[in-house]
Write a structure and sequence with these properties.
- The structure is a single chain.
- With 619 residues, the protein is an alpha/beta fold.
- The protein folds into three domains: 218 residues, Vaccinia Virus protein VP39 (Rossmann fold, 3-Layer(aba) Sandwich), CATH 3.40.50.150; 181 residues, FAD/NAD(P)-binding domain, CATH 3.50.50; 131 residues, 2-Layer Sandwich (D-Amino Acid Oxidase, Chain A, domain 2), CATH 3.30.9.10.
- 28% of the residues lie in helices and 27% in strands.
- The strands form six sheets. The protein has an eight-stranded mixed β-sheet with strand order 5-6-4-3-7-8-10-9, sandwiched between helices. An eight-stranded mixed β-sheet has the order 16-17-15-25-26-27-24-28.
- Helix 2 packs across helix 4, helix 8 packs parallel to helix 12 and helix 9 packs across helix 15.
- The chain is globular, with a radius of gyration of 26 Å.
- The two termini are 33 Å apart.
Length: 619
């Protein structure tokens, strides 16, 4: 199931938020914020423990109203010695809707205006209520909330992270025993950093014994409110610090969507980036198209590509907002069924997988035509939050966001890379040293295979027709079938994209695109070609991106195939490529994934999807 059952808004006679499903209250009668500060913050030695550190990671077992997160964020903001970056991971099986969360916050936070302001930020970025990991960036990206929506025992084992403090919250062990069991405590052991701490309001014997068996030294402390005692603990094991320890300098080869997105993600974290491209400026390849569709995909089996595209699509919606990107046009997108069998699947999938209608829903031919603003051939799927993007504008916005942390070199073709004395050096055909840094990122589309042949990147050349908008109906949304049509913007609409062979003329390719338009059923008033554009897209055999540390092919062994995270890597060398037809959708989340891997931060995707895009998978 994709959709989640939202929490039911209910209050006790004393006005305390209450869960009918678990027959329990969300916080103590003495107050949720006071409980968070006394039990979870003080119980974990915060804010003192994060002071002077570069990063601090907290994991919580029940998000609820978000009061512990808000109290933590507020304490972090008020602390002049705070950590540079704060990560807060939280699980929630039954999240509140945005409207109910806002209603609850309004009544609970009115006495603290600065906390109410934080709550408003949280509400504005509240995710779609679908299962998965949702990465939410707040406070200019310095505070990261990673929400695991669904069963904690399903998501925590799949979460790649190292945690400094645990908030054991959620409903009481008597009311919600599934959340208080040995399997969960074993995940704390897996996730815990050296000297990680924990705190919880309960001192139930089986909880205490389970945590001790999992490797935590626990003790009772004075409790909060009506609770006589609470429990705190410290992890007894030792772990290697996975935080990046080197100088924060990187070279990125390639100034298209992938390179610009990674540059923005790294400079946000304080990195200095040198961007090198053989063209005269950024966005000269596939990222130079006038417009591109931005939508998720669906499948009956909810396969890895579908799950990854959904996560990336939803992340991108928040990313565009954070960027204040004006080249994003949320027009909605219609995917027309190609035949009767596909139409039947489109009708069944949103129901069987419980898609929220705001994410995807079936529409018949009549409603599809109304949404498209033009008669179309068939019904299909409607993606209300989808739309279209101006890729060149997005690349420029990303590079502008980097500010003084970014330097660029245009018209410089890299022909050689070499690691020497702990730095990667890049040189041109004449052997001139162009740049050197501890980290090198290959974002140069299929050319990345020149430096790492095992990446198995292919080249797919496509042709996009530019149509006069006046020759089309006033289509209000993106329309997709075998191809796509964007709404007209400044007199031009984009129609694409047919595969282009070297011997084909532009006229032949435009005719092929018009055939795609005819299949959609959208009428064309006249021959309306304004211009067109060929672009080469890097692709992979499994149609998934290639993102992560580059494997050491010479040291790779068959035993690594089933455990890619153990595969040997080339130190400091990374790749982000293989975007294929979905570059706009992949770019934001894949760049965030790569930046998180480089920094050693909690990752924004479950382990199986990280491995699905791992460059080592082709070995």
């Amino acid at each position: 199931m994709i959709g989640l059952q939202a929490a039911q808004l209910a209050l006790t006679k004393d006005g305390i938020p209450y869960s009918p499903a678990f027959d329990d209250i969300y916080h103590s009668q003495s107050g949720g914020l006071a409980q968070a500060r006394s039990v979870f913050l003080a119980g974990n030695g915060l804010p003192q423990r994060w002071q002077g550190r570069d990063r601090f990671v907290i994991a919580e077992t029940g998000f609820g109203l978000g009061l512990s997160f808000l109290a933590t964020w507020q304490a972090w903001r008020r602390d002049p010695a705070r950590t540079r970056r704060l990560h807060f991971i939280s699980c929630e099986l039954h999240p509140f809707t945005r409207a109910d969360l806002a209603h609850l916050h309004a009544s609970l936070l009115q006495a603290e205006p600065d906390l109410a302001e934080l709550a408003a930020q949280l509400q504005a970025n509240w995710p779609e209520l679908v299962t998965g990991i949702h990465r939410i960036e707040l406070d200019g990206g310095a505070v990261t909330l990673t929400l695991l929506l669904g069963d904690a025992l399903d998501w925590l084992p799949r979460l790649p992270a190292r945690v400094d403090a645990f908030f054991l919250d959620g409903f009481s062990p008597a009311k919600n025993p599934e959340l208080w069991q040995e399997a969960l405590y074993k995940q704390f052991t897996r996730l815990a950093a050296s000297e990680a701490t924990l705190a919880t309001y309960t001192v139930a014997g089986h909880v205490r014994r389970g945590l001790e068996a999992a490797g935590f030294a626990v003790e009772r402390q004075a409790g909060f409110g009506s609770k006589r005692q609470m429990l705190t603990g410290v992890f007894r094991g030792r772990r290697t610090d996975e935080t990046y320890q080197g100088e924060r300098r990187a070279i990125i080869i390639g100034a298209g969507m992938a390179g610009a997105a990674v540059a923005e993600r790294l400079t946000l974290r304080g990195w200095r980036v040198t961007l090198v491209d053989g063209n005269t400026g950024p966005a000269q390849g596939a990222s130079g198209n006038l417009a591109g569709a931005y939508r998720p995909v669906v499948s009956a089996d909810d396969n890895p590509q579908t799950r990854l595209a959904r996560a990336a699509f939803l992340y991108g919606l928040r990313w565009f907002k954070q960027l204040d990107f004006t080249g994003w046009h949320p027009s909605g997108a219609l995917q027309i069924a190609r035949h009767a069998d596909e139409l039947a699947r489109f009708a069944a999938i949103p129901v069987e997988l419980a898609y929220p209608p705001t994410l995807a829903r079936h529409v018949d031919a009549s409603e599809a035509s109304a949404l498209a603003g033009a008669p179309v051939s068939q019904g299909g799927l409607w993606f209300a939050q989808a739309g279209w993007v101006q890729p060149r504008a997005l690349v420029q916005t990303l590079l502008d966001r980097c500010g003084e942390h970014l330097q660029h070199q245009w018209g410089r073709v890299v022909t050689q890379i070499e690691r020497k004395d702990g730095d990667w050096q890049i040189r041109d055909a004449q052997g001139e040293l162009l740049a050197e840094a501890p980290v090198l990122i290959l974002a140069n589309a299929a050319d990345a295979s020149r430096f790492a042949p095992a990446l198995a990147l292919g080249r797919d050349t496509r042709y996009v027709s530019h149509l006069a908008g006046v020759a089309l109906p006033a289509n209000q949304a993106v329309v997709c079938r075998a191809g796509y049509l964007t709404p007209g913007f400044e007199g031009t609409a984009c129609l694409g994209s047919s595969p282009a062979s070297p011997g084909q003329t532009d006229a032949e390719l435009h005719t092929a695109n018009l055939a795609l338009l005819a299949e959609m059923g959208v009428p064309l008033n006249a021959e309306s070609l304004v211009a067109g554009r060929r672009c080469e897209r890097p692709g992979t055999a499994d149609r998934l991106p290639v993102v992560g540390p580059v494997a050491d092919a010479g040291a790779f062994q068959s035993k690594h195939a089933g455990s890619l995270h153990l595969a040997p890597r080339q130190p400091g060398l990374y790749v982000i490529s293989g975007f294929g037809a979905r570059g706009l959708v992949w770019s934001g989340l894949m760049a965030e994934l790569l930046a998180s891997q480089i920094e050693g931060e909690p990752l924004p995707l479950p382990r199986e999807l990280v491995q699905a895009v791992d460059p080592a998978r082709f070995l």
